[in-house]
Structures are given as C-alpha cells and as structure tokens.
Specification:
mainly alpha, 3 strands, HTH_MarR-typ (chains A, B), 7 helices, globular, DNA-binding MarR family transcriptional regulator (chains A, B), homodimer, 145 residues, transcription (chains A, B), DNA-binding
Chain lengths: 145, 145
DNA sequence: TGCAATTAAATTGTAAACGATTTAAAGTTA
DNA sequence: TAACTTTAAATCGTTTACAATTTAATTGCA
C-alpha cells in the first residue's frame, strides 16, 4: 500500500468494524421494537437467559460495558419489569441481577431473531461463523490497557 | 449448531462486531488525545483530508452518520478551529465544509496513527486487509431499509 | 480493634448516535 | 404565480458510552 494511502478512510479497519456494527444494530430495530426493547437491553437479556441470577460486575464484564453505562440501563429494564436488582447478602457492595417472569418469557419471542438476522446479513452460516471467530480472536489479542 | 445455542451471546456475529468496534476505538484514545480530538472528529478529518471542501450531505454519507449526529460534531470542530461551515451559493439549503489551515496541519501529526494502530491489533497487514475487505463486503450487502 | 487501602456501584460530565420532527430553500405543477 | 412536493440541515428527545469522581462496604494490617 502506498504510504499516503494509510490515512484513507476506506483503508481503515476500525472504520469498517465501526460502520458494520452500527448498520447491523440498525437492522435489529424492527425485531426489537416488537419486543419493546433496545439493542443494549437485548444483549443484557442474552446474558441473563444463560445465567440468572448474575452479579452486576460479571454482567458488565460479559458485555464489555462499565457501571456508568449499565447502571442506568438496568434501572430502566427494572422499571419495565424485565429484571430486579438487589444487594447481595454476603457483600452489600454488590448487586445481583435476576430476571422476572416477564423477562424470562421474552426469550421465546426472541428465539427467531438470530436466524432472521443471519438472513439479513446475506452471509452463509459458515461465513458468519468464520467472521465471528476472527473478530473474537482479534478482541482477545487487543491490548487491555 | 444446536437450536438452543442461537441465543447464546458468544454466537452472535453482531455482538462480536459491536464489541470489537468499541475496543478498537478505545485504543485510538491515547493517540487522539494528543491531537485533542475524538474518534468522530478523526474520521471526519480523514474524509476532509481526501476531499476538501465537501458538501455536508456527502460527508454524512461517507461516514454513515446522519445530520442529527454530524451537525453538532461539525459545530464543535468549527469551534475548535479545524474547519468552517458555509452555505452554498447556488443552493442555500446546502452547507459546504472546508478545512482550515489548522485542520490541514493536523494531517501530518496523524500520519503515524494507522500503522501504530495496526500494530496494536496484533494482526499482520494481510490479515487486517482481509478482515477489512470482508466487512466492506458485508456492509455493501446489508439491506438498506 | 481501628484505620488505611481496596473494591463495587452509582454519579457526573461530555460526546456520540439516531429516529422523528421542524424549518427553510428549491423544484414542480396546476 | 401560487400551492404543493421535495430536499437539506437543524432541532428535539431518548439512549448509549465512557472517563473520572464519589460513596459506601469490605478487607488488610499495624
């Protein structure tokens, strides 16, 4: 690559990732609107559908989001009746997040979303898996600090 | 893939893209802090360093950002003295964006960022290019609506 | 035990990000 | 030419996102 091309927008890996992220999340909207939730709510529920209850900090780590982001998100989800937040008995600093019945029931309605979204990416399941694995590998090898 | 695995967080392509995007942008911070700009300012400058002046709408299209996002971004960059915004003579609805001398000069200071960032991804140039091209292809084939 | 250090979540301030609406200019047509 | 439509950017409201700080609980240790 020519030296002067390094600053071209279309050569930036980050911009490609960043734009794909936003555009894919935009495609979730019609599906998530039906459930009355946002993408952030959705990924929060994905974690909780796997692990319920879960400590606040663990949830944040899974989602790569910090307390400044998650505290208001979880409060709004609590307000919607999707989950409850409670202090842990053995350590009053920690918060435990649990799904409500409503939060658990949403899982059924969400069950068809992943395949419909895969369809919208126009990728074969194999291509999607390969790309996802590449990104996971990249994520792992990024410097933490 | 087992049917019940579709809703697992780690199987979601979107979440992998979304998380990579945020983590890579976080790695830009030390570099951009030195220039006193944000990542959004940076990609705006990347476009302007290639095309100057440029119509507002064209800039938005390049960046996949809408007027609601870009109007305040460009106003803040104007305030910093990086660019100027002016109505077009032949069509008073349109805004033309031009770099200032300061905005042009930043390009030199930014010249080393892309290679330093590539280094931080721990990817070979070939791997990075392949991944970027895959994402561009995906972006192109996503439904517009 | 008592106090410093650490840890966890909340809070604060700033900057995106985007859908929906508004305002104003330009184009279209009856 | 006047009314309607379209287009462009700005504005508004809501939700993320994160760095930095604060508050409160716990842990370590002198």
């Amino acid at each position: 690559m020519n030296n002067k091309d390094y600053l071209k927008l279309d050569n930036q890996l980050c911009f490609a990732v960043y734009t794909c992220s936003k555009e894919i999340i935009r495609l979730y909207r019609p599906f998530l609107d039906k459930l009355g939730i946002t993408y952030t709510h959705y990924i929060t529920l994905l974690v909780l559908w796997e692990t319920d209850p879960i400590p606040f900090k663990k949830l944040c780590n899974h989602l790569y989001l910090d307390s400044g982001t998650m505290t208001p998100v979880l409060k709004s989800m609590e307000k919607k009746g999707l989950l409850t937040r409670s202090r842990m008995e053995n350590d009053e600093r920690q918060i435990s997040i649990s799904l409500t019945q409503l939060g658990r029931e949403l899982k059924e309605q969400a069950a068809t979303i992943p395949l419909q979204m895969l369809c919208r990416t126009q990728l074969s399941p194999e291509e999607a898996n390969t790309l996802r694995d590449t990104l996971h590998r990249l994520l792992k090898q990024l410097p933490q600090a």
